[in-house]
């Protein structure tokens, strides 16, 4: 009979606790659900303690499971950092980095940075998950999230990568046909285009115009504004070039919210991980080079 290694089952338990399901853990580890279940049962048998309570609807972590998870998480983090340190000493990075960003910003700015970073480190693997939903870093196994605007309170580390400004604007054709609003009170006279937030951000708080079009794509909102469908509020990286060439006109600058930012958000346990730190530095330099302003 093959003796179970003391490391067997650690990753399975950590993945189950963080994903809160066997299927989620299996996806995270790239193995079958049956494999995760076997590893977990073998670990519980070796320890002589139930770590996870299984019901038909959910998994519950026992006190023993939570205690063992905390130590296992720290052990795996330490092992990962040791491997990263050796790789860095040898001048290369390896392992896998899971990054998430919003769809449009990710396609336009994060993905090119990922490509150029991978060309520098051929042994590194990256999962880039583009989603307009704010994925949970722990539950979704994310190492690094690129977030826009105001951050929610969290225990994660946040680093500012670049400034971000919002502008209300419209096409010259729309303004010629419908007039130019001079104040907040005049917005109800105009067709307005809204994104995922369902409102615009103002200097003193939310602005709630009546929406002619709602859509969860900044690029499509830009195209709608260029086509003369109404007023829109979009970030600087969508509109500044159009201000320069005259295809969009800035409106109501007195309502413009204060500058926000593009953020890198990552778990504190990864603060010393070279592949995270190096990619953040790489992305910051990339954004400074390509963002307008």
TrEMBL record:
Positions of the HTH lysR-type domain: 7-62
Q: What keywords is this UniProt entry annotated with?
A: DNA-binding, Transcription, Transcription regulation
Which processes are annotated in GO (biological process)?
DNA-templated transcription
Output the Gene Ontology terms for molecular function: DNA-binding transcription factor activity; sequence-specific DNA binding
Which superkingdom?
Bacteria
Q: Which Pfam families match?
A: HTH_1, LysR_substrate
Q: Fetch the InterPro entries from UniProt.
A: LysR-type_TF_proteobact-type (IPR058163), LysR_HTH_N (IPR000847), LysR_subst-bd (IPR005119), WH-like_DNA-bd_sf (IPR036388), WH_DNA-bd_sf (IPR036390)
Q: Which residues form a coiled coil?
A: none
Q: Which SUPFAM superfamilies match?
A: Periplasmic binding protein-like II, Winged helix' DNA-binding domain
PANTHER family, sorted: HTH-TYPE TRANSCRIPTIONAL REGULATOR (PTHR30537), TRANSCRIPTIONAL REGULATOR-RELATED (PTHR30537:SF10)
The entry sums up its family as follows: Belongs to the LysR transcriptional regulatory family.
Protein name stated in the entry? LysR family transcriptional regulator
